[in-house]
Amino acid sequence: MTMKLIILDRDGVINQDSDAYIKSPDEWLPIPESLEAIAKLNHAGYTVAVATNQSGLSRGYFDLKTLSAMHRKMEDLLSKHGGQIDAVVYCPHGPKDGCDCRKPMPGMLHDIGERVHANMKKVFFIGDTISDMKAATAAGVKPILVRTGKGKKTELILDENNFSHVPVHNNLMAAVDSILSIA
């Protein structure tokens, strides 16, 4: 049996985003229904992973201990809904560092796929930015855009970035319902 894998962006998909960065567990606030959506995926037999750019580390806005605390909060809140995230992969680099992990590069998605031995052609990546859509395409996975976070602005520029084919949903729960309806 092939593993069913969904990869999610974090800020703007699972939790509220901020142009000033999410810098502490207190600032990490789940988007309504996002945790329930992840639990729904788990209950349907999906492995759920997160791929998130966290340049706040390289910018000095928070440290690894604080990032870990944010992820513990996410996991603790998620467990109350009967869900779990199987892997959290993050890029600590800034936009000018030239790494292959920072989205729009596909490094984090490839890393997750290799860890769980997934057939990447059957994997969905749900994000809210053009860099998420580009990373998904570069990794050979199916991109999905949500309107939460930066998604409403991103939706306006899908066509000019050659992503008119990308499904768009109001939030993570709507995207999950769509995926589960075709699975």
Which secondary structure elements does this structure contain, and how are they paired or packed?
Blueprint: E1 4-8, H1 34-43, E2 46-53, H2 64-79, E3 87-91, H3 107-116, E4 124-127, H4 130-139, E5 142-146, H5 151-155, E6 168-169, H6 172-182
Parallel strand pairs: 1-2, 1-4, 2-3, 4-5, 5-6
Helix pairs in contact: 1-6
Explain what the structure shows.
With 183 residues, this protein is an alpha/beta fold. The chain is 34% helix and 16% strand. The protein contains 6 helices and 6 strands; from the N terminus they run E-H-E-H-E-H-E-H-E-H-E-H. The protein has helices at 34-43, 64-79, 107-116, 130-139, 151-155, 172-182; strands at 4-8, 46-53, 87-91, 124-127, 142-146, 168-169. The protein has a 6-stranded parallel beta sheet, sandwiched between helices. Strand 2, helix 2 (64-79) and strand 3 form a beta-alpha-beta unit. Helix 1 (34-43) runs parallel beside helix 6. The radius of gyration is 15 Å and the shape is globular. It starts with a strand and ends with a helix.
